[in-house]
Amino acid sequence: MKHVLLVFLIAFPTLVSAQTLNFEGSVEASAIFSSEEELPFWLYTNTSTSVYPTTNFSGIAAFTVDYNFSETASLEVGSTLLVRDNEVVEAFQRRDLYVGFNNRWLKATLGSRKQKEVGKGLSASNRNFIWSHNARPLPGILLEANEPIRISNTFSVDWGIGHYRLNDDRYVDDVRVHYKRLGLTAVFDENHKLTGRLQHFAQWAGTSPTFGDLPDDFSAFVDVFFARSGAESTIGGEVINALGNHLGTYYIEYEFKTEAGIFQTYHDHPFEDGSGTRLANFPDGIWGLQFEPANPKWFTAILYEYIDSSDQSGSASKSGFDGYFGNNLYRSGWSYEGNVIGLPFIVFDRSVVLNDKTSPYSSNRARVHHLGVQGAIKQFKWTIRSTYASYLGTYRRPFIPQVNRWSNYGSLAYTFSKAGTLQVFGGADTGNIGNTIIGGGLSYRYSF
Q1: What distances in angstroms separate CA 39 from CA 35, 215, 390, one per listed residue?
Q2: Are the beta carbons of 136 and 342 closer than 8 angstroms?
Q3: Residue 188 burial (CB < 10 Å; 0-12/13-18/19+)?
Q4: Contact yes or no for 6/139 (Cβ under 8 A)
Q5: pTM here?
Q6: What integer is the mean pLDDT of 343-366?
Q7: Distances (CA, A) of 195 to 106, 157, 188, 215
Q8: Burial class (CB in 10 A: 0-12, 13-18, 19+), 13
Q9: Is the bond preceding residue 209 a cis peptide, omega within 30 degrees?
Q10: Within 13 Å and on the Cβ side, how many CA atoms surround 105?
């Protein structure tokens, strides 16, 4: 992160002195209350930690500076700063801090930048089982296609490759994350489009309190890139399985347009080992349907998702127990600062003291029904989310009885012509265990 800050400080004066400069900024403040110690689920989930479960005040300040070299190439510097109270890692943190370069075929980002929001933000996990908005953006470097590359009149290819570091306080220190994706889009005509994508993540390297320094040379990176088994000198199960902790998804989406509007149906299927890659954990993943009317009246988009993480290739000892997001070696698993990076219905217990036998994942098996609706009337914009989740625990430690939770959220925002946006929001959670939680708040955002 120090290197990112250095690049930022060097690049910023250069941009400011340029003759062609575009600047955008915003500030936002939120006051939040709850009937219990923690807020309702949807008041803090997928906020990139701008709000934590015990937050009463949140402030966000953001700016971007763009310099256009030509019509097809530009340089961008951006930062988003967060401040919030109550039991956070640090009260003042960055969300985004990056330098980016764009041209017709390449988009390069150095630093930390929030992932692009898809589907109008109605999805429970941004249509991505592995990479949601539940944690702060990871620091690193990402190279990707600026737009899908057309290879014929029908087909286009998307790609991306990245390298990140988990620089938080975790069981294995200084863990690296390898990321890549490859996608193919087929546009059959103006009304029908099919998209497929494979994405792959791997946690590797770092320093373990039990095994010391883990493999981090170029040979180890090649093994990680191709998900190959480690050499004989590597650690325990890494000789049998692929070197590192591997996660990924197969994503498929079909979009079709009618006179009534646009329909999108999609599935994001997770895998963490061979059983998942051969679909032995079916039907796990995110199953979604979204509709946007051609002539919106009282709503602009509606979404339903069924999310399942309960199969995990079964409980057989040889091929089952996929144990999503957990790992025997990288015991902090797929988390950053104690926040799950992916699907927010996998539960990370920060109170667990990690050693070579414990796991912070108290529940990674869940079945979820999620509904999201969004609408707009003149300067008013409203959003409703309603989610019913059944948490099953883990195969080794199931919840008996299972924990059922119904989480609801609603917001109404009014945008003034020159004075920003005022939003009132509220949420309510109820279930078979624990108290009913009711909360809400008020936020104001001004852009310049």
Answers
A1: 8, 41, 19
A2: no
A3: exposed
A4: no
A5: 0.91
A6: 95
A7: 20, 10, 11, 36
A8: exposed
A9: no
A10: 5
DSSP letter (8 states) at residue 137: P
Kindly report each contact of residues 214-218 with a partner whose C-beta sits within 8 Å and lies 24 or more positions away, as own/partner: 214/172, 214/329, 215/243, 216/176
Handedness of CA 146, 152, 156, 160 (dihedral sign): negative
pLDDT at 91 > cutoff 90:
no
Average pLDDT, the chain: 92
Q: Enter the tokens of residue 323.
A: 């144990």
Taking only the tens place, the pLDDT of each residue in 156-181 is 999 999 999 999 999 999 999 999 99
Examine the pLDDT at 5 and tell me if it is beyond 80: no
Contact (Cβ atoms closer than 8 angstroms) between residue 158 and residue 185: yes
Tell me which amino acid residue 258 is: T
Measured between alpha carbons, how far is 243 from 104 in angstroms, rounded to an integer?
36
Token couple for 194: 């099919």
Encoding tokens for residue 244?
């590192």
Segment 44-54, tens digit of pLDDT: 999 999 999 99
User: Helix (H) and strand (E) counts for the chain?
Assistant: 5, 25
Task: Check whether 71 has a pLDDT greater than 90.
Answer: no
Instruction: Give the list of residues 6+ apart from residue 9 with CB closer than 8 angstroms, or none.
Output: none
Question: What is the C-alpha separation between 185 and 266, in angstroms, rounded?
Answer: 13
Give the pLDDT score at 319: 64
Left (φ > 0), alpha (ψ -120 to 50) or beta: where does 263 sit? beta
Supply the pLDDT for residue 230: 61
21 closest CA partner among 6, 30, 8, 11? 11
Measured distance CA(241)–CA(64) in Å, rounded: 43
Give percent of the chain above pLDDT 90: 84
CA distance 173 to 210: 12
Question: 3-state class of 62 per DSSP?
Answer: strand
Instruction: Report residue 318's pLDDT band, with 50, 70 and 90 as the boundaries.
Output: low
Residue 43 near residue 30 (C-beta atoms within 8 A): no
What is the band of 241 on the pLDDT scale with cuts at 50, 70, 90? low
Give the tens place of pLDDT for each residue, 12-52.
554 444 457 899 999 999 999 999 999 999 999 999 999 99
Q: Among candidates 165, 167, 175, 163, which has minimal Cα distance to 209? A: 175
Q: Which residue has the tokens 């193919």?
A: 184
Phi (first) and psi of residue 286, to 5 degrees = -105, 125
